[in-house]
Design goal:
The longest helix is centred in the last third of the chain and has 13 residues. This protein has 2 helices and 5 strands; from the N terminus they run E-E-E-E-H-E-H. The protein is globular, with a radius of gyration of 14 Å. By secondary structure, it is of the alpha+beta class. Strands 4-3-2-1-5 form a 5-stranded antiparallel sheet.
């Protein structure tokens, strides 16, 4: 996966995870040092936080695939502005 694609809101498919693994798809929520903070679903369908090594996701031989993008940063900022009104 291209490093540029590791930005807030990138939706990633983890090709290492099995098809029934609820964490197979996750969204990048930030980068901290060598780690990428992500949010996905747990076995109960609830949101959960996790992290991956940045080098694993960026590995061109790896099985992480960019499958979409959600402008979550803009959504959050808009919600904050509305709350401040």
């Amino acid at each position: 996966m291209n490093r540029k694609l590791l930005q807030l809101g990138t939706i990633v498919k983890n090709g290492y995870a099995g098809d029934r693994n609820p964490g197979k798809v996750f969204m990048v929520m930030g980068i901290s040092g060598p780690y990428v903070k992500v949010i996905s679903k747990d076995i109960n369908g609830e949101l959960c936080w996790d992290r991956y090594r940045k080098s694993d996701i960026e590995d061109p031989e790896g099985k992480f695939e960019n499958i979409g993008f959600l402008p979550i940063g803009e959504i959050i900022l808009t919600a904050f502005k509305k709350a401040e009104e």
